[in-house]
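Filed under: proteins

Residues; backbone shape codes:
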Amino acid sequence: MRYFLLGCTAALLLLAPRTRAQSPPSAETQIAAAVKAAPASMRSGATVLGYTDDWTLTTLREEDGTLVCLADDPREEGFHVACYHESLEPFMRRGRELRRQGVTAVDSVRRAEIEDGTLPYPDHPAALYNLSGTYDAAADTVRGASRLRVVYVPYETAKTTGLSTTPKDGPWLMEPGKPWAHIMIPQ
């Protein structure tokens, strides 16, 4: 019986979700990695959100530029950072809050809040820059980098923009007609 219990315990440990890190990297490392998603000319002015030792998301660096950059969460698989126009921060923050609360219908909640005026949302185009790959902190580089650039165009459609809604057609319009309609620009 003892070997059976040891075997079950070992199997559970092997199947349990794993985290990549016990504690977040230093603020300096998180900032250096996070701003890699932004265009080079906008990195020094970007505000950066990252993680404290107790995994609280906080402002690691406040600047006067127009971008907010989100550090990689090392508890998640893979490396992913993003920078977006400051006007999108309430929308992004609300999404993080809802996911943390276990809400699965995040977009439905945010759309209702945008439409009833309780969630601020830009009425103008706003950019989002994503970067994924493998971050090497010692070399301050991202190996296998994959970039995705997005321009939010609230409520726009294929008819109003002339953009395809098919991903294989180069830049394309995703979520047409919704507050968070956006042009996907893969690279």
Notes: The beta strands are 47-51, 57-61, 67-70, 79-85, 126-136, 141-152, 172-174, 182-186. The CA atoms of residues 43 and 151 lie 18 Å apart. Residues 21-152 form one domain. The chain has five helices and eight strands.
